[in-house]
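Hey L., structure's done. Input below.
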Amino acid sequence: MPLERPREVYEELADDPGFLFADTPLEKSLKNTFRHGFFRAEYLNFNVEAPPNGYVGAPSSLYSTAGINGQISNLNAVDPVGNARRPITGLRQPITGVTTTGSGTPAFYDEIEIKSLNGVRGTYGIPLATGVVELSAFTMEPNSSTYKTQPNPQPASLDDTATTSTGSFTGFILTPVRTGNSVGGEYLLYDRSYSYDYRTTMYGGDVNFVADEGNPNTPFKVQPIFGFRYVNFRESFNQSGSYFAQRGPELADGTTGPDITTTRRIYSEADNYQYGPQLGMRAEVSSKRLALGVEPKAMIGLNSYKTHLTTSNLTPLLDRALSVDSVYPFSQRLQDQKSTEFGAILDLKAYARLNVTELFSVYFSYNAMFMPTITRPYDNVNYNVRLDQTGQQQDAFGLKAEFTQIFIQAISVGGELRY
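Output:
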């Protein structure tokens, strides 16, 4: 007998089977968006423009006679521990109008090098219907340039009972200062040690939309770029030096107190937060195995900067009501300044992409970044002292953000993976 076929049942499903049973329009869009893309990882090697060659401190009318390795003569010292009632062997006291002879060597910025710094950059690309969205971030390792020197002073002859000192002294490290904001021949002297530490670090990122070329089959493409960029550039300049008083304060009973060693510190810091919209273009010529291109971009936006200055033990807080045998306290001052100004970044990248396979490429690039409105810590300190009513110098160091330009270069090598 013939076998009967089982009955077939057909069910017509609705377009939307219900919650959690099918992709929503957003899920479909995300799947299509992230189905293809690329990721590029690069190693970078940075060179950052160092402070210009010159000496640390305020402008000095006597510097023109001293070369890069020369000395400055006719010193007028700003002494942090001595005064007319506390003579110090080996250093002239800061008594207005007294002339003495001597020479010292300024500290120079020439020891600061910001070169061959390691860095990394990652870029993720998401293709869209009319172009590619690229998200990129980079960081540079912190750099520290340190300068240390050991002064070798030759003491002057000093009359312990007089209020003035005479003679000749050499071998000191000095920092020129202004007096009442006037350029003159006043200096901070260091006879035991002097050092500085200059630190630099930078990181940032951007997001860009790179529009498609109108003719996708041409080997030469010109693609406009629209995006947003952020860069943080931060530096600090920390000076420290010791000044040794071979004689201590004169006590009330006529004896000499313990010797005094004082360490001056001058710390300046500048943080630049630059951000804003970015425009550019990408010009590329490519073949099956090799692509060569250039990518100039310009960011026109803002620089929200913060600067800081700490000074300690520059000059004593002289209190004329204190007795002769009192040890004067030293000053410590903290100053901060922050604001938002115009900021800009000009960036140029030239690159080569070698296609090893259909999905993997080796990537090389040269990067140049120019920032015309950067504030840097070495340039923000006003090396200034003022005279009180008794003729003694007092700490009047000031903080004022000065803007300069900086040029940064980097080469990179990395790999690009497409999927």
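The chain has a mean pLDDT of 78. The longest helix spans residues 25-34.

-- N.
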